[in-house]
Amino acid sequence: MTLFTVAWRYLQGRFVTSVLTIVGVGLGVSLIIATFLLTRGIREGFIEGATDYGLIVGAKGSPTQLVLNVIFRMDAPMPNIPFRAYEDLQHDPRVEVAVPVAMGDAYQGFRYVATTDAYFAPFSGRRRAPALSAGRFFRSDVPEQPTYEAVLGADVARRTGLKLEDRFFEGEEMAAYPLTVVGVLRATGTADDRAIFISLASYWEMNELSRRAMVKPLTAVLIRPKRLSDLAALHRGWNVAPDIQAAFPTAVLLNIFNLLSLVEDVLLVVLGAVVIVVGLYLFVTMYNATFERRREIATMRALGARRSTILGIVLLESCALATLGGLAGILGGHGGAYLGAALLAARGGPPTHALAVNALQPVTFGAVIVLGALAGLLPAVLAYRTEVAENLAPL
Amino acid sequence: MRHSDRRRRIPARPLQWPGAALALLVALAGLPLVPPALGQEIPRLTFAQLGDSMRANFGLTQGILAFSGREVEIQGFIIPAGPPDLSFFLLSRVSGTGNYCCELPSGQDETVYVYVAKGISIRYDPVRVYRIRGMFEAGHQADRSYGVSFFRVRNAHVEEAVGARIFKEEKGR
Q: How far apart are CA A230 and CA B106, in angstroms?
């Protein structure tokens, strides 16, 4: 009979306690894994979904709100800016690409994004331009003759079940302006997957106020400069205006990351406490188990078992509990992260890449086994030092 | 018998290993204090030097071109014009945000395109001055992702420059 078999039999002998210990360790590890996967996933989701445009021009107010709304389709839309701002930017010699964007209401929770075909066009330095998986892009219509054509993001098509040529609207007042699906985009892993793209002309005609307005409204203009070194001057130029602001999307994201890292610091302290609790729980379990079987240990010693054998059995038990708890925790942590990411997505949060496998899993697994060994060390030493004569005395 | 065996296994000079380990630790701790190129100080470039080096038709002075291919140090504000992991950004004499009252934004002549070395983590603060060290390149160049530039620092290491002064020095002061 090997040392491992003896240790395993001991664990089976106190089945309920062993299972509860494994569940306890597993829960602690799950919490650690899920927290790391989600916080890192949110950060990577923001990076993945970041725009390739260097500047966003919108109404005066919070740059964070502007970027979150226009790029990530989160938060409330900013007030409108006049279409003239777009025309000025289009004629600015420093600007290579200017894309007008107007944020509308939503269909089943998916926002309408009104823009031009420039939104889908590739340009120098663009990591990926939106591409079609079916159909075509909407036509560039004139304001007086909107076509009410819509291009769906991949998630919208999947979750609403809308197909090419389907007509849809939401709300009685929109019944007069049904949109027709003419295209579906390929999945990009960005907020574009959760948007319904329509032309500006359709958007203006669907909105009662803009229909009558002489000055057509926009939410923002996305800018790619010819030279990056002109970004600062463009940013300054628009920010000194009384009613319009310009924001660096990357700067806004970095400020969000700075806030996230504060939260991560707090979480690290909490997770540190979880590690201590898990370690103590393992220690108490092993200590009690060793204490209860002093007589058995003394018998084994009397039958010729060496002190090192007893030490090894107790350490193996502790490590086995930690290993099984660690494995359960890693699986549970991935499940928790998956649920968290789904919950975030359902609430309109950023796309979260929460199931990445990297150094986190093996490092955590190794650390749990080391923790198990450390927690079992004192009980193992107590078992090692068990006096035969003292513990074999008649009861 | 056992005792004698154990005694025989004990090394003759047991303090050798701890002593050697301690010496190794001290040597490793002292490594960052050794300059990267022995006997050579890293030259520090200023935005005034960069601005003064510009000539007609994308030309640059021989003085600034002499730094090309060498490791240099430059201090300035970060303008996050690239991806949010800050693997690339612009370094400018003037902060990208704020300072609306007193400084005009800088242009091509006072902007350095910084390509950060792998594994460097930067905490972005728009009003903080950063010290950049890396391989300097001068000359007109068009990059597919980031467009035209005159001054670049590649494989850059970035740190906050506490108490740094980077304002352009007026001539005659």
A: 8
Enumerate helices (H) and strands (E) in chain B, giving the number of each.
4, 8
A216 and A261 belong to one structural domain: no
Nearest-Cα residue of chain A relative to residue B110: A229
Q: What gap in Å lies between CA A4 and CA B2, rounded to an integer?
A: 29
Residues A60 and A181 in one domain: yes
pLDDT digits (tens, 9 = 90+) for A256-300: 999 989 999 999 999 999 999 999 999 999 999 888 888 888 888
Domain boundary among A247, A281, A300: A247
Whether residue A136 is found in the same domain as residue A233:
yes
Residue A254 near chain B (CB below 8 Å)? yes
- Work out the number of other CB atoms within 10 angstroms of the CB of residue B67: 18
Same domain (yes/no): A240, A285: no
Share of chain A above pLDDT 70, in %: 98
Q: Which residue of A has its CA nearest to B145?
A: A125
Please write the tens of the pLDDT for every residue from A120-146.
998 877 888 889 999 999 988 777 788
Q: Do both A111 and A177 map to the same domain?
A: yes
In this structure, are A232 and A312 located in the same domain?
A: no
Q: Are residues A116 and A39 in the same domain?
A: no
- Please report, as a single letter, which amino acid is at residue A331: L
Domain count, chain A: 2
The answer to whether the beta carbons of residues A350 and A74 sit under 8 Å apart is: yes
Structural domain containing residue A75: 55-247
Q: Which is higher by pLDDT, A241 or B134?
A: B134
> A251 and chain B: CB distance < 8 Å anywhere?
yes
Is A163 found in the same domain as A218? Answer: yes
At residue B147, the 3 state secondary structure works out as: strand
**Do residue A124 and residue B148 have CB atoms under 8 angstroms apart?**
no
Answer whether B105 sits within 8 Å of A261, measured CB to CB.
no
